[in-house]
Amino acid sequence: MSERIFISPAKYVQGKNVIQNIGGYIKDLGEQTVVIADETVWEIAGNDVVKQVKQENIKAEEVVFNGEASKQEIDRITEIANKANATIVIGVGGGKTLDTAKAVSDELNGYAVIVPTTASTDAPTSALSVVYSDDGVFEGYRFYNKNPNLVVIDTKIVAGAPPRFLASGIADALATWVEARSVIQAGGDTMAGGSTTIAGQAIAEKCEETLFKYAHLAYESVQAKSVTPALESVVEANTLLSGLGFESGGLGAAHAIHNGFTALHGDIHNMTHGEKVAFGTLVQLALEQHDEKEIERYIALYTSLGLPVTLEDIKLKDASRDDIMKVAEAATTEGETIHQAFNITADDVADAIYAADRYAKAYKEKNK
Ligand SMILES: [Zn+2]
């Protein structure tokens, strides 16, 4: 029996306008930061972060992120950070920026401060990054010996982001309990490298419960650019509960299938992480034995949030059986998380992809 392991960031801060206090939270960590954000995010939040940091007499080296969490980009920013003698890496933005910031802080053996500007993925809290090629193809997970030191998420900024981002985060978070449950049932290992704790299980379950209660209200809140208790709960579910829940609860098929999709070319690359995970979750549910009502509960929530549920929705209407097999092969390569939860072949995965597509089409037909 393997050890039970639970890991988490040292501190998590969430609320309206909390970015205005960020200087106070990091002032004891050091004197030189490197701040990473892409061009758009500099305007939305990056400049504010630098202002707050400087108010505490901490220096900031500003870097514009080029858009891909690739080895080349990690090396480029590490060099800039080294030249500036930075000991604190502050990543501001979406999943790929944050994953890059974690990698750079690992290279420097420094502190990682994560400032998500959307609640679109569960990347912020974990001690791992997903690394892609410069063309956006999944290359692998990169594991670190510690989680971020600080995560600061300002819900006012999240409420101002496009609703599609929140919906993507909800989809990513809805996978959490589905995947953790399958790993627990199969006795597999989690991303933290041991078996699931009671805490990890409880967090993953609570994540799903929160989303089925509040996801829709939160989505409407963001349409109105309003911070509400429903939005606060969903931001916590998407970021903290999903982050802890996937890392210490376990990843199964949904994320492996997501990773498989990145192996294809074409319009699918315009889908967000969460959108691909939404379809991956339906495929995992199709691999398991659930009744119609249970599967439709997910399809109903996804469709109400504008999330993709069919192959056509994820721009794969014209995909050949060969393409789908390519996804299935990639999802079942050695070391993929699917093996922590299932004893299956690529052919089984391909069948489930077609089945999930049909289930969703039938649901849409019925609810026209
Ligand atoms: Zn994810």
From TrEMBL:
Cofactor note as given: Binds 1 zinc ion per subunit.
Reaction catalysed by this enzyme: glycerol + NAD(+) = dihydroxyacetone + NADH + H(+)
UniProt-recorded Gene Ontology molecular function terms: glycerol dehydrogenase (NAD+) activity; metal ion binding
Record flagged with keyword Nucleotidyltransferase: no
Enzyme Commission number, as recorded: 1.1.1.6
Protein residues bound to NAD(+): 38, 95-99, 117-120, 126, 128, 132
Binding site for glycerol: 122, 172, 255, 273
Domain Alcohol dehydrogenase iron-type/glycerol dehydrogenase GldA residue range list: 9-155
Enzyme kind, highest EC tier: oxidoreductase
NCBIfam families (UniProt xref): PRK09423.1
Similarity remark: Belongs to the iron-containing alcohol dehydrogenase family.
Protein name: Glycerol dehydrogenase
Protein's organism: Lentibacillus kapialis
Lineage: Bacteria, Bacillati, Bacillota, Bacilli, Bacillales
